[in-house]
Amino acid sequence: MRLSRSGVALLWLYACKPPSIGPEKPEPVDPTPVNPLQNADVVLLQTPAELTSNAEVVFVLGVSDPNVQPKFVCRLDAHDVELCDATVTFANLAEGPHRFEADLKRSALPMLTSRAVGFDFVSDRLDPAVVLLEPVVESLLSGTVAIRFSTEDAHRGTIAIEISTNSGETFTSLVDVPDNGEYAWDTRSTPDTEHLRLRLVPHDSAGNTGLPVMHQADLAIDNTAPVVVLTAPAGAESFDAEVYIEWNTMDAHPGTVSLARSVDGQNWSDVATDIPDLGSFLWDTRALANDVALFLRVTPTDAAGILGTSDTTDQALRFSHVVLRATVVFPNGGEILSGVRLVTTATEGPVDHLQLELSRNAGATWSLLEAN
User: Fold this and answer.
1) Distance between CA atoms of 305 and 255, rounded to whole angstroms?
2) If you count Cβ atoms within 10 Å of the first and of the last residue's Cβ in the chain, which end, N or C, has fewer?
């Protein structure tokens, strides 16, 4: 048989691809259905604060794949897993820690899988209680003082400190401080007053506010130095024995004074220190050297401990001590006396009269013999 070139070609085409009979068959398909939740996870769109004082807590659930129409399962603490809506609300929770867990419903029964999400939070709806420890009522405050307090609460937050200068009729805010038990208050930021009261309001970190506590009696602030005027002696006066030193102190809370003397107005020696500020002091000068000139100084310190400016005599005082002395010349001891005997004496100084006394028991006791 003769083969033409076209026949060879036809024969080759037949060998490469046999002629098809009927329509072509489709490619085989995997019969296993696609799970739409396979790549989806639950998302917490809204949660309460980790520490909350709300009576109700709300969780809002979502899904990572917006094309999925999910069902949710969830539980609180150790309760059973249940079907739940996208918005979950819990009310009247017990005080303390809680754990919320949620997942997509991936099986016939409600259960949590390893892809569940959890959220831990603490419920605290108890109000804090504070006790004001210091300063105590009727205290006199000056400079920097410590305000001390004690708070009972599981989650301490801040203390609002308020002050009143009208015995508690109205209060203004002083400062909000961390609830660590103490605050150093510089009272010089507040004008002097006799009608101070403090009020403390506790706030815990969960947002609860406790009842305020306040002083039930007034305190005082005194940051003003006392002023003193030495009124007597005025200076250029002479004294021989005792001297009344007198002064006048201007201060709401007088405390003590110190008295000093000086021969030159520069170097001072104590006469009396920290004596009550009563306005006068009797000074016995008989221990001083005779015919000495001295300056006097008074320095006040008020009850708040504030040192005032001293006041000094403008001129020196002169102290001249007149010495009076009497000596028994006869009898002078050892004599035996009988009848009427003359007692002879010698005196020194401007003596006006003598008083004679007699002892019959070697000086243990004395009785008046002659008054003049």
Assistant:
1) 8
2) N
CA distance 231 to 312: 10
Q: Where do we find the tokens 């259905």? A: 33
The burial of 321, by beta-carbon neighbours within 10 Å (0-12 exposed, 13-18 middle, 19 or more buried), is given as: middle
d(CA 111, CA 44): 18
Q: What angle do CA 174, 208, 215 make, to 5 degrees?
A: 40
DSSP 281-336: EEEE-TTSPTTEEEEEEEEEE-TT--B-B-EE-SS-EEE-PPP-EEEEEES-SS--
Q: Which two tokens stand for residue 107?
A: 């099986």
Task: Count CB atoms within 10 A of the CB of residue 32.
Answer: 6
Q: Which residues contact 299 (CB under 8 A, 6 or more apart)?
A: 228, 257, 258, 259, 260, 307, 308, 309, 310
Closest CA to 134 of 192, 89, 200: 200
Determine the straight-line distance between the first and last CA of the chain, rounded to whole angstroms. 195
Smallest CA-to-CA distance from 149 within 204, 196, 213 is with 213
Distances (CA, A) of 172 to 132, 133, 168, 200, 295: 17, 20, 10, 11, 50
Which position has the token pair 């004596």?
275
Q: Which among 310, 284, 308, 275 is positioned nearest to 296, based on CA atoms? A: 310
Burial of 227 (0-12, 13-18, 19+ CB in 10 A): middle
Residue 161 has a CB neighbour count (10 Å cut-off) of 20
The kind and range of the H/E element at 61 are strand 56-63
| pTM score above 0.85 | no
Helices (H), the chain: 5-16
Tokens of 160: 């609002």
85-92 — which CB contacts under 8 Å span 24+ positions?
86/60, 86/61, 86/62, 87/58, 87/59, 87/60, 87/61, 88/58, 88/59, 88/60, 88/61, 89/56, 89/57, 89/58, 89/59, 90/56, 90/57, 91/55, 91/56, 92/55
295-306 pLDDT tens trace: 999 999 999 999
The pair of three-digit structure tokens given for residue 235, joined into one six-digit string: 């200076």
Which pLDDT does position 13 carry in this prediction? 40
